[in-house]
């Protein structure tokens, strides 16, 4: 089974002047954006290292220091393959930006790859697993605009001023949402330079954003890709069509970009998402529709405070027994009103799932 690393073996010797940017290129750079480049990349594009130079810098780091900058064990192979390729190696990476602010409920990161024609490919990072990043994602259910989207628009405008050529905007997961939002809300002259927006399994928006004139203007340049059992990419509202990509994983693990199948310059495509994906999409939409905006906000805020008070800083910790126990213990200490609201809202979600069949049957 071939993935985007195999694509670099097949197409890595072809420059962008020989083969224009493909959706797989966008997924590669979206995945690269998860790597932490702080203190390794200059904000000055004239001093920006090439991917070949960056790859060498990573290889020279002590093993633990290098791995601490990665999201996935395959990231080492990714940056090495990008650096060794004729397609990506000579290109400069600049403006690596990372923001994490508990008070603002903000988790944001982005990188920019400078193209040979004075253009740029801008990649927004998805959720990094921090509790605050997860909270910002949930805020999408009741806020028209989240802080990360504001930062994405600002970042895109800054890069548009720095780079005078064509623009490509990409992102995976929440990064895909940020990419689309930035393209919708940027200035008209910036939007006119955008050649494509690639959204990889990113959630949609509340209706108000879709009614923005900028959405209609950019819609024919937005390309959305989801795996066959997509959950994240089906959340909230979309109007753009989507392409279904075959993933070698099961269920929620299909969100992982390294699992997406590649063939030649593109993805292995399927005619539609699975019945289970459609059912989960309908169930969650019905669940949200049954909650007022205030109820959604109250539920998300209470759940976040519950987890934070249980000393959870990363959502991965929820899989560890001691943190599960801490959450249950903390829930027992909540006042009756908060506890009842949390339990009733969660039970409503399970009831909606049971009403449409088990998600594990598909």
Structure description:
By secondary structure, the chain is α/β, with parallel strands linked by helices. It is built from 15 helices and ten strands. The chain has helices at 4-11, 23-32, 51-59, 63-67, 75-84, 131-139, 147-162, 174-185, 188-193, 207-210, 213-218, 275-289, 293-309, 321-333, 336-355, and strands at residues 92-101, 106-114, 120-124, 167-172, 194-200, 222-227, 242-245, 262-263, 266-267, 269-270. The strands form two sheets. It has an eight-stranded mixed beta sheet, sandwiched between helices. A two-stranded antiparallel sheet has the order 8-9. Helix 3 (51-59) packs across helix 5 (75-84). The longest helix is centred in the C-terminal third of the chain and has 20 residues, at 336-355. It is globular, with a radius of gyration of 21 Å.
Task: Record keyword descriptors for this entry.
globular; 44% helix; disordered C terminus; 15 helices; eight-stranded mixed sheet
State the gist of this model.
By secondary structure, the protein is of the alpha/beta class.
